Amino acid sequence: MDDHSEVLLSCKDVCKNFGATRALIHVDFELRQGEVCGLIGENGSGKSTLTSIFAGVQPQTSGELFRAGRPYRPANMVEAQKAGVAMIVQEAATLPTIDVASNIFIGNYELFSKNGHLDVKKMHREADKILKEIGVEDIKGSTLLAELNFEDRKIIEIARAMYLKPEILVIDESTTALAQKGRQLIYHLIDQMRSEKKGVIFISHDLEELEEVCNKITCLRDGVLVGHLEGTDITTANMRPLMVGRELEGSYYREDWDGSSSDEVVLDIRHITSENGYVQNLSIQLHKGEILGFGGLAGCGMHEVGRMIFGLDKTVTGEVVHVPSGTKITRIDDSIRHNIGYVSKDRDNESIILNASIQNNTVMASYKKLSRRGFISPKAEKRLSDRQIETMRTKCLSGKQFCNQLSGGNKQKVAFSKWLAAGSEIYILDCPTRGIDIGVKAAMYQLIYQFKMEGKAIIMISEELPELIGMSDRMIIMKEGRITGEVTRSKEVTDTKLIEYMV
Ligand SMILES: Nc1ncnc2c1ncn2[C@@H]1O[C@H](COP(=O)(O)OP(=O)(O)OP(=O)(O)O)[C@@H](O)[C@H]1O
């Protein structure tokens, strides 16, 4: 990087404590014009904490921030945005009960107010304009947010971050929440910001993506800034040891190419159609000992399939049958009773209760298993929860810590732990490794493979083609609510082959 370029944002000696947790320890950081700085580190290393301080979400405990060389103390996100620093946060940050435009301009309605009256039409028009500017033509400012799916809601957050034309854009682990369309949109914005000599801080656990997109990498480990990479040194091979402090060996995914499973069907999904029309007359069978992968582009219906199988969404035609018991799954209770677990893509709203402890979340689906003559021993609860914390290497103070105090990746570990603790026989995993760091990701893949070998059955819905190819026995590709391709595990399967069925 050109050292003569202007420093857009910096911090000196920043510390952040949450009670006993030291999330940031004496961090110095600099972002210059034209830099796209990838911020890496294991789950809980302090990435979101640092960037949220830059974006005015919370103040540091000590240390100083500077914006273009001047002291910078944003009191909230709106103030930071006005100072040219915008952030797209990791989790959903939109309100479903108001329209798209109101979500984009939240905190800035005065832009459209005159004599105390809000000019709603003008606000809708302006929202349409901004959406168009960032390359989105199919969402309108007047649409109620609740009508949009998860990916499109994320796109609204991008529009919100971009409308004041920020000089610094922070993207916190957002690409994994987005399908291909949204990712291309973010990459395009990053390119544009770089060429305009603005700055981007990009948090991601996808090292290939970082290698592609960034011209600088900064790494945090346990709250301490441990190093930078620049230019040709930005390779996945250099990033891995920097993050975890040791070499990671072997392949991420399972190493065999045997896509066989038992003939025994555990779930028979017959002609299901969803209420919202995203899934149309879909039939598929899941077998014992099978990892069945679902892939497709945004809006293809694969996430809805997972929700319907678990009993979270209604089917308007067809049925889902748990074959060993002959039960029709129509509600979540049916699933839990038959040892079916589900990890939703929308973690904070559907997979965990944020205002409850790790232990309460972990044992939530295991009460039947833990109950002895109607009583549950607190010791047994703690034992079960502690075992999952250890297996998943969840970074926390103890099982008593509330989930809203955990880093994103560690929340995802709790979401998975709940079904692990319950001893599920069938797992429906929607983007299971979202936000998880590379070390734990490898451990999670091993665990999923172990489940298969134990005769459990897994549905893995994924937006990551390497993950689908690397882990599935069979890959189901969907487009517009229907199955367009079915591919069996083999060394010869490529991204290109799967994409052909998606478009
Ligand atoms: N509000 C809070 N209260 C208590 N502890 C917190 C709070 N927010 C974050 N922490 C702790 O601070 C540490 C750093 O968390 P942070 O979210 O910054 O990690 P991260 O590197 O962004 O992780 P991930 O990759 O999982 O998103 C973690 O130990 C986390 O539990």
From TrEMBL:
UniProt keyword terms in alphabetical order? ATP-binding, Cell membrane, Membrane, Nucleotide-binding, Repeat, Sugar transport, Translocase, Transport
- Tell me if Nucleotide-binding is a UniProt keyword of this record: yes
Q: Which residues form a coiled coil?
A: none
Gene3D superfamilies from the xrefs?
P-loop containing nucleotide triphosphate hydrolases
Question: GO molecular function terms here?
Answer: ATP binding
Q: Could you tell me which residue ranges the ABC transporter domain spans?
A: 9-247, 264-501
Note the InterPro entries from the entry: AAA+_ATPase, ABC_carbohydrate_import_ATPase, ABC_transporter-like_ATP-bd, ABC_transporter-like_CS, P-loop_NTPase
Name assigned to this protein: Sugar ABC transporter ATP-binding protein
What is the species of this protein? Diplocloster modestus
